[in-house]
Amino acid sequence: MTPKEKLVLVGNGMAGVNAVEHLLKLAPDKYEVTIFGTEPHPNYNRILLSYVLSGDSKVEDIVIHPYEWYANNKITLHTNQTVTEIDTTAQTVTSDKGVTVSYDKLILATGSNPFMIPLPGADKEGVMAYRTIRDCEIMIESAKKYKKAIVIGGGLLGLEAARGFLNLGMKVDVVHIGDAIMERQLDYTASKMLQAALEEQGINFLLEKQSAEIIGHKRVTGLKFKDGTVAEADLIVMAVGIRPNVALAKSSGLECNPGIIVNDYLQTSVPNVYAVGECAMHRGIAYGLVAPLYEQGAVLAKHLAGVETGPYEGSVLYTKLKVSGVDVFSGGKFGDEEGTKAIRIHDEFTGVYKKVVIKENKIVGAVLFGDTADGTRLMQMIREETDVSGMAKTSILTDAEGGGGAASGVADMKDDAIICGCNGVTKGTICSAIKEQGLTSVDEVKNCTTASRSCGGCKPLVSDLLAFTLGSSYDKNAVKESICSCTDYTRDEVVEAIREKGLSHVREVMSVLSWKNEEGCSKCRPALNYYLGMVSPETYIDDSTSRFVNERMHANIQKDGTYSVVPRIYGGVTNPTELKRIAEVAEQFKVPTVKFTGGQRLDLLGVKKEDLTAMWEALDMPSGYAYGKALRTVKTCVGETFCRFGTGDSMAVGIELEKRFERLNTPAKVKLAVSGCPRNCAESGIKDLGVVSVDGGWELYAGGNGGVKVRVGDLLTTVKTEQEIIEYAEAYLQYYRETGKYGERTSEWVHRLGIEHIRDVVQNEEERKPLCDRMNQALSVTKDPWKQAIESREIQRDLYEVVELI
After folding, report:
1. Dihedral angle sign, alpha carbons of residues 138, 139, 143, 148
2. 274 CB contacts (<8 Å, ≥6 apart)?
3. pLDDT digits over 457-482, tens only?
4. Which residues form the NADH-rubredoxin oxidoreductase C-terminal domain (predicted)?
């Protein structure tokens, strides 16, 4: 029996271990494998660190290869040990714990180090990088003590860190030197769309800012910029880039510039020594994305196994992932360079942006935002340099020529097409697993192959592969939709459990229902907080830590860190005394901008956080809830009072509706409008509930939306009196509160339930009256949050007072 060769892998990360895994499949008896890892963990998915930070996953959830895998494959694993010396003549490696191992083949997969900006004060307590599980643990512990974080760097890693801080209940600023975030992965349009989506979630961006100094005594208290401004912080995370970790390679005499130089078979300048992953420099490029590193590993594994393989000739870069729940994709060269032409679709109504760049009749790059389903197909066309001269150009973005639906699209893909870019899982691997393991759901595919385990952006393609492989036996609608990855329970099951078991707070729900993540996440915690309040409005105590920043602060945070104050102006109708008071307060607090909103309200922009409660007190007006999942505004026209076409008193009805529902918590924001005649000057047809005066009565329209996804409302009912308007509005809104999913606008809710069903419920007096009674109950306990903050020193201290910078 031929003795096994000795293979040593330095680096227990994703790239190196993936190469070893391939090698073991190709030549299971060829090598005796030893692996050294600096961290005290088995191989884990570094991409999922943000899920650990945000509380969506535990450390054990992101482990790719548990200790049992190493044992089952007879791999000797040395964790918590760093190789400090390589003797390339004797062919041995030695660790910092004094362990020496000889090798016949050596793979260096030492990864990269986070770059730390050499700012004055960078050595202070509370300044750190974000790269490892230990970094996550430090950040989680810090969030228990401190309230404000700054992330320097607007790339993917920085945005993931910022999202994690929000989930941990911290306020966070993202500081970026450029004018657009993720500029390496997205063009300017997609970048700004992503920024707007993340601002909606509560992340504050400070763009075109150059950091000058980290201030504080022993611990960081803020970040000073070169323009002289200062942003306060208890914790600063630098996420500005990585550099290949080549210290060991350099000291061992390997050629580096700046990464470890490798050829097309990942061989270094020293015989029998290979490099793979972020530490390797191939044809002048060091790759930092997972897919290219797995492509390198596949070539290296075949080479070491003695299997014939073509050379690694570099990778066409692409990114397909979710950034805080937002789908983005980019691939190839997507900039507007000389000699290129672009096809663009920019649908502001649905929040979808698509761009394909063509040069010499071949697709060379693409950017997708909001809808990334075509990403894999486009990448295949880019890689294969498909000639598109005979294609209708718009069909490139719509897959119009496929003709066979989703299954037809994946059918055309080759088996080596990468479906899951995060984990490097191909179509062939997924289809084989479906057939051999009898998989029938996306979750089963995820657990078996790791496809869709990371960002989840490839779930639609995995579902298409199930349909393609299983045919008519696959029912993608049969799998119920849980409210988030922390649980298998659906929205309806959670609400039913709250009612039946008498659950009374967020943690109790998670405990009783055996939440997978005991801390919950940014999707389920706000949802549970809403459902508990909806079920028991008179007894439930709102959990402010489970709300997003705007709702906690009762003011909309702006991109420069200031806030927006919108006082309640019922029906958009005001008077000179009220206007004078607003003007005087704006002068008193030096408000730089006063703007009329689309909902006929006055928006005072640029207010400092520490001025909010004093300003609210000076205004002596109720909160306009411009920040909440609640009634925002009731827009009105002048109606019959002044308009010669008016047939109804729209202002009076609008004021009555707004006073009735002004503090009502709802699954998502709600906007109303009342038009005094069918000319519809108040735009009632595109509101969550629109009221239009007609001859002999009023028409009520449901489920309209004038935002990202425009939808004209459906006729709900026609009533004769103003009192009936209130009654039907109560029943409609309460039914939405009780059956809507958290975060679901009425436009989506009406589409899901169907207007006929909602109409039947609201028009049925036996159902309408109980809904109105429950609405009365919900409204009976509401309080003005601005007044609560004015009267509570504790609230002022915790949320609005600024810590003095030392």
Report:
1. positive
2. 105, 106, 107, 108, 262, 266, 267, 268, 300, 304
3. 677 788 889 988 988 888 765 556 78
4. 319-385
Question: Which residues, other chains included, contact 641 with Cβ-Cβ below 8 Å and sequence gap of 6+?
Answer: 649, 651
Task: Please give the pLDDT value at position 482.
Answer: 81
Spell out the SS3 assignment of 436-468.
HHCCCCHHHHHHHHCCCCCCCCCHHHHHHHHHH
Task: Name the residue among 330, 244, 255, 256 with its Cα closest to residue 287.
Answer: 244
Q: Which two tokens stand for residue 103?
A: 């090798």
Between CA 663 and CA 670, with CA 666 as vertex, the angle to 5 degrees is 80
Lookup result for tokens 């997924």: 430
The length of the chain, given as a count of residues: 806
- Using alpha carbons, select from 340, 333, 291, 610 the residue that is nearest to residue 455: 291
Coil, helix or strand for 33? strand
Per-residue CA distances from 272 to 91, 169, 275, 328, 695 (Å)? 9, 50, 10, 40, 89
For residue 352, count other CB atoms closer than 10 A to its CB: 18
Rounded Cα distance between 280 and 296, Å, is: 10
**If you write DSSP's letter for every residue of 708-747 in order, what string do you get?**
SS-BPPEEEEEESSHHHHHHHHHHHHHHHHHHSPTT--HH
User: Which tokens is 753 given?
Assistant: 């339930």
At 232-289, the pLDDT tens digits run: 999 999 999 899 999 999 999 999 999 999 999 999 999 999 999 999 999 999 998 8
CB distance 687 to 653 below 8 Å = no
User: Which class for 404: exposed (0-12), middle (13-18), buried (19 or more C-beta within 10 A)?
Assistant: exposed
What one-letter code names the amino acid at 471?
G
| DSSP secondary structure code for residue 312 in this structure | P
CA atoms of 159 and 780, how far apart (whole Å):
40
69 DSSP β-pair partners: none
- Please state, in angstroms and as integers, the Cα–Cα distance from residue 754 to each residue in 236, 701, 749, following that order: 48, 13, 8
